[in-house]
Amino acid sequence: MEAAIPAFAEHGFRAASTVEIAKVAGISQAYLFRLFPTKADLFVAVCIAARERMLEVFAEAAASRSDDMPALKAMGEAYRELLGSDRNLLLVQLQSQVVSGEPKITAATQRTFHDLHALVAERSGATDEELQAWFAQGMLMNVMAAIGALDLNEPWACSLCEAGSAA
User: Domain spanning 4-127: which CATH class is it, in words?
Assistant: First the structure.
């Protein structure tokens, strides 16, 4: 699966080649399909790995925050750091959100938002309105990271990145 993450991140579900993924993994394509019966199954496994990583990062941030830092802020800062350190995780998220017509992938993406919402709500005690704003700011951070604007020193980028990190 490690070989699939960068392939799907860079090329997306439809354009990523299972032949190339198998080659990078050092296995045959036939064996790849024994492990993951369909390309969608492999992509879902990649999405699950990304979800588990985000859940781990959020849980750790909420647990290790100082008493004077709100849980939402701690999780938001941890997410921004994650976006800066793991571009493939970011791109896999974005790729999973644009795939249509693949019920398994849609279900996995919905499950990601379900699980993230449940964890963030439970760890923060935030209201629905606060959660909506926090997740919206997270999506803004995704876009800013995807276009390479998190660390730009330009007024528009600073303004939008500050808005996103205020979560």
Answer: mainly alpha
